[in-house]
């Protein structure tokens, strides 16, 4: 039905102000019992940060129960109180984490809060995550107001990797070591040119994309250091090498992000709405920018 976490096994790597602020917020609210909402784009580390908060909380001796809100059958199962009570008992659950809460239909959103209120009586704490801006969703009447008020009592933001430049190289070196062990390689690091490429790339896929790029580079590299050649082969940007330049016009960066969002969410009306929310702009603004940059399906 869901994933049960009983120990924290991953490290949090980075030096950016945004990451340090998120960690500081976790430490501040660790001993509280109120719900926490983790917001950030896909693959910015929301689950890892939630795991960290759980590991230092007063419920850390109990399991973390992870519910994937994308999974409709899982949610139907979860909304049966007797099923959840069994899991609480069988797995000694103290914290429940709803992954991507904004993906729930409004019908499920409205059914969820009464169940949460029942489980709170058993000293269960709740974490939520969303890669969509729930504040905008609430304004657009796409998020249940009561659930919004409950989930947003504490909010922790995970900035995208393109806004956390200080974290890119530490993460890259961390994953080099991870894949050195997995692949029995001995890559020592990155060439200066490779570092420049990583720092100038926009990382639309955030940490997951960086992890994948480093994995392939370590796999393919026979030299002591990952070079520009290994990254050019694996970044997979199909519109040329402009993304690798250290500086580019802001308009070009905006166009690239627009195309990336629409490639992920699609050109349907619903896809455009999701793309607008992911970019934190209104649907009208999205349409204006599509016209400006002549972006079509």
Give structural notes.
With 297 residues, the protein is α/β, with parallel strands linked by helices. It has 3 domains: 3-159, P-loop containing nucleotide triphosphate hydrolases (Rossmann fold, 3-Layer(aba) Sandwich), CATH 3.40.50.300; 162-244, Helicase, Ruva Protein, domain 3, CATH 1.10.8.60; 250-292. The protein contains 14 helices and 8 strands. Strands 1-3-4-5-2-6 form a 6-stranded mixed β-sheet, sandwiched between helices. A two-stranded parallel ribbon has the order 7-8. Strand 4, helix 5 and strand 5 (125-130) form a beta-alpha-beta unit. The protein is globular, with a radius of gyration of 21 Å. The model is unreliable at 237-247 (pLDDT under 50).
**Average pLDDT for all residues:** 88
The separation of the N and C termini measures 38 Å
Tell me, what is the CATH class of the largest domain? Alpha Beta
- Strand arrangement, major sheet: 1-3-4-5-2-6
Which residues form runs of ≥5 with pLDDT under 50? Answer: 237-247
Helical fraction equals: 40-55%
The number of E-state strands comes to 8
* Sheet with the most strands, sense and barrel status: 6 strands, mixed
When the domains are counted, the total is 3
Q: Kindly identify the CATH topology of the largest domain.
A: Rossmann fold
Beta content comes to 5-15%
Please tell me the CATH architecture of the largest domain by its name. 3-Layer(aba) Sandwich
Radius of gyration: 21 Å
Total DSSP helices: 14
Kindly report the name of the CATH homologous superfamily of the largest domain: P-loop containing nucleotide triphosphate hydrolases
Net shape: globular
- Helices and strands, in order, run as EHEHEHHEHEHHEHEHHEHHHH
Secondary structure category: alpha/beta
